[in-house]
Amino acid sequence: MAVTEKTHPQGARFIIIGASTLLGKEVKELLEERYPSAAIRLLDDNSVLGQLEEAGGEATFIQSVIPENFLNAEYALFASTPAFTAKHWSMARAAGCSIIDLSCGLLDVKESGIQLYSTWLGPGLQKNRPPDIALTGVASPHPAALMLSLLLSRAAQAGDLQSSTGTLFRPLSDIGKYAMDELHQQTIQLVSFKPLPKDYFDEQLAFNLLAQYGGEAKLTMKEFVLLLQKQMRTLLPTEAMTPALQVVQAPLFHGQTLSLYLEYKSPVQFHAMVEALSGEHVQIVPPDEPVPNNVSTVGLDEIQVSIRADAARPGGFWLWAVADNLRIASLAALDCIKYLAISRPSGNIQ
User: Fold this and answer.
1) How do the domains of the chain map onto residue ranges?
2) Which residues contact 106 (CB under 8 A, 6 or more apart)?
3) How far is it, in rounded angstroms, from Cα 13 to Cα 199?
4) Which residues, in sequence order, are bridge partners of residue 248?
């Protein structure tokens, strides 16, 4: 199949649904950086209508999510909540847009036909996946699932991996503005010895770690863990590689952090671990350099990884991995755009 140059996303017309979200803003910035000639339209819910933004160097306003605002666009990127995506995706489908779901909201909507896509790893998800002219959109994996799966699939190349256990420290930027606002208010109230707002988490998060939210919280930890595990079963070469996973809600505004323990059936050399984990999307931090943290990784494209052999177990290794979750999600979205540009060309098929 030969396609015209219009299949290239440079100069394409994009819509970002959830433009006021942290992820929406990051996606917009990356699109402007990589595709400076692209046209970008910003949509969101009624609470932020008319909010002044900048797109492509020009002032613009956030518009409402209505059918006519999807017309003449080639790509619709959903960067809001799963519920918001599930409510409005059909407008993009009806307008003929290629859908990129960054919210994971369409994976359980059977009639959408949306499935995970990534060029980073996984069976059937590789860069040589054949174009599909009938494809109407794809979903990008959650950045935590993508980070875990990438590290595990590479670690398996260093030796016979027996088991893996991880603790993921979830940032508030992965949840949204309401969660960040509540932590901010809790911190202010706590140092002022005043009652804490707990509308979102139903627990004190300020100066605290949560392995579970309160019973009246707006979200559940179990649902998030199940989402990650389900995606990893798709991304990883075998279901048996899915790790035992504990998610901890950290009082951090930004950056996902992972402590991952790997145990091999027989001893593995340190240099073999470094060689296996190195490659695209991963930066190994040498032992004599400071370990990565949430601040040092802001704005970086790569997952920063520090490796340490377990002192008591010859076949054991600890990985400390940190990444800018919004940046990782946005980069993965670009991969989806490039694939859809080939699969669903806007020019004439020859």
Assistant:
1) 5-141+329-343, 145-325
2) 78, 85, 86, 89, 99, 112, 114, 137, 139
3) 39
4) 169
* Structure tokens belonging to residue 150: 């990438």
Q: Check whether 186 has a pLDDT greater than 70.
A: yes
pLDDT of res. 330: 96
pLDDT tens profile 111-160: 888 989 998 885 445 444 555 555 789 999 999 999 999 999 999 999 99
> 98-123 burial string, b = 16+ CB within 10 Å, else e?
bbbbbbbbbbeeeebebebbbbbbbe
Asked: is 145-325 a CATH 3.40.30.10 domain? The reply is: no
**CA-to-CA distance for 30 and 97, rounded, in angstroms?**
20
Q: Look at strands 52-55 and 58-61 and give their pairing.
A: antiparallel
What is d(CA 307, CA 151) in angstroms, rounded to the nearest whole number?
A: 11
Q: Give me 196's structure tokens.
A: 């804490």
Say whether 316 sits in a helix, a strand or coil.
strand
What DSSP assignment string belongs to 33-60?
HH-TT-EEEEEE-GGGTT-EEEETTEEE
Angle between helices 143-155 and 270-277 (to 10 degrees): 130
What is the chain's Cα-based Rg?
A: 21
Beta carbons of 101 and 128 less than 8 angstroms apart: no
How many Å apart are CA 342 and CA 2, to the nearest integer?
A: 9
- CATH assignment, 5-141+329-343: 3.40.50.720
Non-local CB neighbours of 273 within 8 Å, separated by 6+ positions: 155, 158, 307, 317
Cα–Cα distance for residue pair 116/129, rounded to 1 Å:
12
Do β-strands 256-264 and 316-323 pair in parallel, antiparallel, or remain unpaired? Answer: antiparallel
d(CA 70, CA 112): 17
